[in-house]
Design brief:
heterodimer, A: alpha+beta, Ubiquitin-like (UB roll), Fumarate Reductase Iron-sulfur Protein, Chain B, domain 2, B: 486 residues, alpha+beta, FAD/NAD(P)-binding domain, Flavocytochrome C3, Chain A, domain 1, five-stranded antiparallel β-sheet, binds flavin-adenine dinucleotide, binds FE2/S2 (inorganic) cluster
């Protein structure tokens, strides 16, 4: 297959960055999108140029490492798919494809398509856990969990922390990411003791990190490779409100 | 009683997220410091003990030595030595290989689990192989056309012209035959010319009979997410067209030797999880890798590490001590050497070549002639690497090619050790199948008298041959017998 690629090249954080055009004439429809970039990179290296830096690890939609904006869509145009699970057969012969990094104030570009997502680690540190020390939790099967709650908690737990929701949000909010964590832990018995405190801590941290506020645009849900529903945002907001009754304090 | 936990095919991911949450909490409490985008490139041994590591910051390129009272490695397995495996692309052997070079024994390097149910490669561009859960073997039947080179579409092959080879070879277990047997059987029918799909390297995993019996709805409830994965990659719907599968390297039972307290042969170096050799012998059972991770992390290291601290008189060390300065300098020199080659071949092309050699000679079926040839081929390839590798960019920047090059340089050494280990083990056992050692019906023939032991390799300096030590295995209650799945 033939493609014209326009790829964002940026040497480092300080560099301004620009789109560079590359022609590919012999891509295979069975290639994954990242295999296409590998293929291009091999050519670039052989020509003495620097390959395009991009992140990836599991290449099967599990680890959350990959992520780039393809023709304006985080992770590309297919629904419920990480960019590592995207295949060229879904593109038209001769297509022009624009590839750029996550665009968000909170994710500075490190190089080309690689961005710094450590802000998500900081959000996790604020409250994305249960406070039972590892190893001393009671045997999980002694506390029965209703099937319904377990299923919904798993829907939220599927979040891979890729950051696509933030990249897609016109306001640059991390509401879906945070609410997925809150939903996952808040639905299970292990997560109850600090449920409200957790909501407060994570949502405050989100504000402090300079994320925007959720404006109900629903772009996050549309691009989430794990199809996490914005219902969790409503849940999180309820927990957040409750937090001020249970643990009063300055907002 | 269920033997395995299953959570939507995300068991490992969910364990990881739990561990990541707990880690984040400790980081928040100031008890743990995390260094993201940092790679360990060497182990520092001082006064006969592991006392630190050398790292490279992947963004700034800064190489530095860190001191420690003990070093705990949980760096995963090395199946990526084959280039194509089911492992994440970032998985690598560098930390355990560098530790081996510093004196840690490497046990059973040739014990590699090849998983039977992976999606076959579709071309030379393939970057990794995706596992498709073998749960599908519960409802699917594995077959190939009886006639060699039969290129008809699967629905055009009549029932009596199909070879349900697992059912034929292992009537007792049929399509649920253990991983190693299923992998070997698939390779054999493909070697015989009956394989399907690109390059004849695939067998059918056919659910179409189950569709007729159980109905699409039941199957989708059971395996919906697996069907989605398969369809995404292959473009085919498993409910209508038989899936194609082929074995792929998946897990490494071999790894650094450890004692029951998870300590390697270097005092103060502890190794956990897939990186060590423990628990699985020559043949890991499904689901036991995550179990091992939990056991090592929850039940063993919290106690044995404390015991080590209690019993060791650990003097002060500083990053300016000689062993640290020297180790950091060696790491920097090696990176500089790689960059200085400026040859013609990319890192990936060396890695793919190495993978092809290992897959052919040290894969599912092995023999002495092939392994001997592989050792020679790998040596030549390694020599070429250091003369002809092409790594662009420099060391003071995010340089993914440089990261890969260091790993491939290590694989080029590890691959040779794997072949030597497979060559020295003159028997078949578990995953290790030597053609010369098989029963009359083509099954593994163990030799417990000569090889009922763990092989532990010790590195020798200056290109001298590594030394093979043995740790005898003694069985008190259950005496090993021949496996039979007929
Ligand atoms: C597709 C797939 C499916 C599987 N399914 C199952 C299953 O259902 N059940 C089961 O029991 N097992 C399963 N396994 C096996 C199991 O997942 C692994 O054996 C297990 O995750 C290994 O855990 P670990 O902590 O030892 O290493 P890993 O999880 O591999 O972690 C090692 C970490 O170390 C990092 N690292 C490596 N080298 C360095 C270095 N030099 N410097 C810094 N960091 C480094 C890596 O980036 C990685 O984060 C599966 C494996 C795969 C690949
Ligand atoms: S590389 Fe892991 S999700 Fe894409």
């Amino acid at each position: 297959m033939k493609f014209t690629l326009f790829i964002w090249r940026q040497r480092n954080r300080g560099d301004r960055g620009r789109f560079v055009k590359y022609e590919l004439n012999d891509a295979d429809p069975g290639m994954s999108f990242l295999e296409m970039l590998d293929f291009l990179n091999q050519r670039l290296i052989e020509r003495g140029e620097e390959p395009v830096a991009f992140e990836h690890d599991c290449r099967e939609g599990i680890c959350g490492c990959c992520g780039m904006v393809v023709n304006g869509f985080p992770h590309g145009p297919e629904k419920g798919t990480t960019v590592c699970q995207l295949y060229l057969r879904h593109f038209q012969e001769g297509a022009h494809i624009h590839i750029e990094p996550w665009r968000s104030r909170v994710f500075p570009v490190i190089k080309d398509l690689v961005v710094d997502r450590s802000v998500l680690d900081r959000m996790m540190r604020a409250g994305g856990f249960i406070s039972v020390p590892t190893g001393s939790a009671p045997e999980a099967n002694t506390v029965p969990v209703p099937k319904e709650a377990a299923e919904v908690a798993m829907d939220a737990a599927a979040c891979i922390g890729c950051g696509a929701c933030v990249a897609a949000c016109p306001n640059g909010a991390a509401a879906l990411f945070v609410s997925a964590r809150l939903g996952h832990l808040g639905l299970l018995p292990q997560g109850q003791p600090e449920r409200e405190r957790r909501a407060k801590a994570m949502i405050r941290r989100m504000d402090r990190e300079g994320f925007g506020a959720c404006g109900n645009h629903r772009e996050c849900e549309a691009v989430c490779p794990k199809r996490i529903s914005i219902r969790f945002i409503a849940r999180a907001n309820r927990d957040f409100l409750k937090a001020f009754f249970v643990h009063p304090g300055k907002a | 009683m269920s033997r395995t936990f299953y959570c939507r095919g995300q068991t490992g991911q969910q364990l990881l997220l739990g561990a990541y949450g707990a880690l984040c909490r400790q980081v928040g409490l100031g008890r743990v410091k995390m260094f993201p985008r940092t790679e360990m490139l060497d182990l520092v041994v001082a006064g006969g003990r592991a006392r630190g590591i050398v790292t490279r910051n992947l963004v700034t390129g800064i190489v530095e030595a860190h001191t420690a009272d003990a070093v705990v490695l949980a760096a995963g397995g090395y199946a990526n030595v084959f280039f194509l495996s089911t492992n994440a692309r970032g998985a690598n052997a560098t930390s355990i290989w560098r530790s081996y070079r510093r004196g840690a024994g490497f046990a059973n390097p040739c014990f590699i689990q090849v998983h039977p149910t992976c999606i076959p490669r579709s071309g030379d561009f393939q970057a990794k192989l995706t596992l498709i859960s073998e749960a599908l073997r519960n409802d699917g039947r594995v077959w190939v056309p009886k006639r060699r080179g039969d290129t008809r579409s699967p629905d055009a092959v009549p029932e009596n012209e199909r070879d349900y080879f697992l059912e034929r070879m292992y009537p007792g277990y049929g399509n649920l035959a253990p991983r190693d047997l299923a992998s070997r059987a698939a390779k054999r029918v493909c070697d015989h010319g009956c394989g399907v799909g690109p390059g004849g390297r695939g067998v059918y995993l056919d659910l179409t009979a189950a569709v007729a019996g159980l109905g699409e709805k039941v199957l989708c409830e059971r395996y919906g997410n697996l069907f989605e994965i398969y369809e995404r990659i292959s473009g085919e719907n498993p409910l209508h067209t038989p899936m194609r599968i082929y074995p792929a390297p998946h897990y490494t039972m071999g790894g650094l030797w450890v004692d029951y307290g998870l300590q390697s042969t270097i005092p103060g170096l502890f190794v956990l999880g897939e990186a060590n050799f423990s628990d699985h012998g020559a043949n890991r059972l499904g689901a036991s890798a995550l179990m091992q991770g939990l056991a090592d992390g929850y039940f063993i290291i919290p106690y044995t590490l404390g015991e080590y601290f209690g019993g060791a008189a650990l003097g002060e060390v500083s990053p300016s001590d000689r062993p640290f300065v020297e180790a950091a300098k060696e790491v920097e020199d090696r990176l500089a050497r790689i960059l200085a080659v400026q040859g013609k071949r990319t890192v990936d092309s060396f890695h793919r070549k190495l993978g092809a050699i290992l897959w052919e000679h040290c894969g599912i079926i092995r023999n002495a002639a092939g392994l001997g040839a592989a050792v020679e081929k790998i040596r030549l390839l390694r020599a070429e690497f250091w003369e002809n590798v092409l790594v662009p960019g420099d060391a003071a920047d995010l340089n993914q090619e440089l990261e890969k090059a260091g790993r491939v340089a290590d694989y080029l050494e590890l691959g040779e050790l794997m072949c030597r280990d497979a060559l020295a083990r003159e028997e078949s056992c578990g995953c290790h199948f030597r053609e010369e050692f098989q029963t009359a019906c083509g099954e593994a023939l163990r030799d417990d008298r000569r090889f009922g032991h763990v092989a532990v390799w010790e590195h020798a300096e200056q290109e001298r041959e590594p030394v093979r030590h043995v740790e005898p295995l003694t069985f008190e209650t259950i005496i090993p017998a021949e496996r039979s799945y007929k």
